[in-house]
Amino acid sequence: MIKSLIRRLIGKSDASSRPSLGQRVSVPVSAHRIDASLVDDRALKVVQTLQDRGHQAYIVGGAVRDLLLGLRPKDFDVATDATPEQVKALFRRAFIIGRRFRIVHVVFGRGREHEVIEVSTFRAYLDNANAETVSGNERTAKGELARMQHAVDASGRVLRDNVWGPQDEDAARRDFTVNAMYYDPRTQEVIDYHKGFEDARKRVLRMIGDPASRYREDPVRIVRAIRFSAKLAALGFKIEARTAAPIRKSLDLLADVPQSRMFDEMLKLLQTGHALASIEQLKGLGVARGIYPLLDLVVERAADPFVSAALHDTDRRVGEDKPVAPSFLLACVLWSDVRQAWQHERQHQAPIPALQSAIDQVFDARIGDVSGRGKLAADMREIWMMQPRFDKRAGHGPMTLVTMARFRAGFDFMRLRADVGEVDEALADWWQTFSLADESEREDMLAQVRPSNSPRTRSKSTDMAGPVVISDEPPKRRRRRRRKPGDSPNDAGASSV
User: Fold this and answer.
1) Is pLDDT of 491 > 70?
2) Buried b or exposed e, range 390-409, using 16+ CB within 10 angstroms
3) Residues assigned a catalytic role
4) Where are the domains of the chain?
5) In sequence order, which residues have a C-beta less than 8 Å from that of residue 311 and are 6 or more positions away?
6) What span, in angstroms and rounded, lies between the C-alpha atoms of 236 and 243?
7) Mean pLDDT computed over 9-14
8) pLDDT tens per residue across span 198-209
9) To which H or E segment does residue 132 belong?
10) Cβ(220)–Cβ(257) under 8 Å?
């Protein structure tokens, strides 16, 4: 008993707490009725290549769940008994990635059209009692971890999980029953060890094993539970009460998860087409605060008209298979902070340097040190810095602005501002028309607005941080053009984001 107590205190569990390995059940096509045409050809090729070389290989995880529900999966993962090195050797473009969890990315196509099939090796189920323990974390114990295959920290959080095993153990170490099924596209059978097929029919999201222990092994499962429940809520799925119960008590465990990983999980929560549903799930589970500071801010501001419009727009675009960028959504969430800081900084310096300083302050305070910060910061900065420029429709400024690589993102941002009344709707319509016009039409549009934007008249921004004057070039270099006879002001047309 004393030994068990010690193990619990340091995050190690008794053998009795490990989940059951379950019983293998083969579900035939007559029962599951998966439409084979929904299976991605590239995932099929990966499975067939592995099987042809004598390996076990299955489509696994969320893709199987979605197929059972009649949905076309957006991502396909493959599980196999082949080691990462064996998988890599079978494909021309395959890359072993990860330290905590070594997997292989098999890449098809190039550029924006490329597709990645993620291939993982069957993992052995090893509870914490059989794992090596380090006193630090991913960074402080990097040297120790380099030689370990299965390691946990003092709280029981798994830092390494690279011990290969049989399929039944691999199923036991997965998180939710509906994500722990295997589909063989050749035989069309579904392999189920933990009644995932039954839970899919009952619309239940249930953790394999003891939920509190599984959250301790990987606290990010808390976020995954919320994300899956939000995604599947429209289909009637609910989190099992036993699975939901430890979530609030386990929030403190997230403090030890690397910030970069939490940032990535937050983006998955907000950019997979179910941002609004995810926020409702967070509130419903009583965890609207405490998961990640920036996520707390998103939830807090979700009712703000501008942020709400951005979240709606993100969900819409994902639903229409259009690309979304984290820089755009976060720029919307943090826009009020930028405006406030800008107003303060303008008391001490010129408007544009003040805006740059405000952006630096907000980014440091809200984003912090996360992976990919440099590009994220550059994209968000460009979106914000464009906003005053939309007020200037004279000289060569509009011609230059419309050719910028991030113009569309900047315009969409301004369009949302117009939708909530922060910017004149006519201004947004003008830029919509201008961006779609040819060079001659653009010259005519500039000629029509030039009298009201004469270089002798200083223009004001539209209620962002007070009056701002932005000059794209010295007035002495500008040349007035005579208005063509019969010209009339441009009619505002409908725009779409």
Assistant:
1) no
2) bbbbbbebbeebbeeebbeb
3) 75, 77, 175
4) 334-477
5) 270, 275, 276, 279, 302, 329
6) 17
7) 44
8) 999 999 999 999
9) strand 132-133
10) yes
Which tokens sit at 413?
Answer: 């941002």
Predicted confidence (pLDDT) per residue in 149-171, tens digit: 666 776 777 777 788 999 999 99
Q: What are 74's two structure tokens? A: 């957006």
| Torsional sign, CA 313, 314, 318, 323 | positive
Q: What is the model's pLDDT at position 138?
A: 62
Q: Report the largest interatomic distance among the alpha carbons of the chain, rounded to a whole angstrom.
A: 96
Cα–Cα distances in Å, from 154 out to 6, 129, 157, 292? 12, 12, 7, 22
| DSSP single-letter state for residue 347 | T
CB atoms within 10 A of CB 267: 17
Structure tokens at 18: 């490990």
Angle in degrees, CA 179, 116, 260, rounded to 5: 75
Please state, in angstroms and as integers, the Cα–Cα distance from residue 380 to each residue in 216, 275, 363, 391, following that order.
Answer: 35, 20, 9, 19
DSSP codes of every residue in 466-490? S-----SS-GGG----PPPTT--PP
Reading the block at residue 87, the tokens are 């998988």
355 within 8 A of 384, measured Cβ to Cβ: yes
Pairing of strands 115-121, 77-80: parallel
pLDDT band at 148; cut points 50, 70, 90: low
CB of 25 closer than 8 Å to CB of 192: yes
pLDDT at 433 over 90: yes
**Half-sphere CA count of 337, side-chain side, radius 13 A:** 20
Segment among 108-117, 134-143, 315-324 with least mean pLDDT:
134-143
Q: Nearest-CA neighbor of 81 among 117, 63, 57?
A: 57
Secondary-structure breakdown of the chain: helix, strand, coil percentages, each rounded to the nearest 5: 50, 10, 40
Six-digit token string for 322: 């259009």
- 146 vs 141: CA distance, rounded Å: 9
Over the stretch 269-283, which tens digit does the pLDDT of each residue have? 999 899 999 999 999
- Supply 267's token pair: 């983006």
Q: What is the DSSP letter of 134?
A: -
CA-CA-CA-CA dihedral for 276, 278, 281, 282, to nearest 10: -110
Give start and end residues of each alpha helix (H) in 367-487.
373-389, 397-402, 407-419, 425-436, 439-449
Q: In terms of Cα–Cα distance, which of 84, 158, 160 is closest to 118?
A: 84
CA angle 205, 211, 212 (to 5 degrees): 150
Asked whether the beta carbons of 324 and 317 are under 8 A apart, the reply is: yes
Predicted structure pTM score: 0.78
Superfamily of domain 334-477: cca-adding enzyme, domain 2 (1.10.3090.10)
- Which amino acid does the sequence have at 100? R
